[in-house]
Amino acid sequence: MVSYGGEGTLEALQDDSILGKIPAIERGSVVIIGNDTPLAAAGTPTALAIEYSIDEYLKLLSEAESKLK
């Protein structure tokens, strides 16, 4: 699961009575893309934005995936 937000976004999602029941949110396997980061600017990808941000995006996805185990 991927979302945009800040430092407390995951905790707020986990505390929500409905959203907190989603398995990915429950276990914390969520990628929170910081609002004020270059990666957030790549939300509407272009050929240049993908090349610029793909390594960081894949790193975040890998970190979230590691919480599945």
Tally the beta strands. Answer: 2
| CATH topology description | Rossmann fold
Radius of gyration: 13 Å
Low-confidence stretches: none
Number of helices: 4
- Bulk shape: globular
Order of helices and strands: EHHEHH
Share of β-strand residues: 5-15%
Question: CATH homologous superfamily, by name?
Answer: Nitrogenase molybdenum iron protein domain
CATH class: Alpha Beta
Neighbour order of strands in the largest sheet: 1-2
Structural category: mainly alpha
Task: Give helix % range.
Answer: 40-55%
Whole-number mean pLDDT: 87
What is the number of independent domains?
A: 1
Largest sheet: 2 strands, parallel
Give the CA-CA distance, first to last residue.
Answer: 16 Å
The CATH architecture can be given as: 3-Layer(aba) Sandwich
Protein name: ABC-type Fe3+-hydroxamate transport system substrate-binding protein
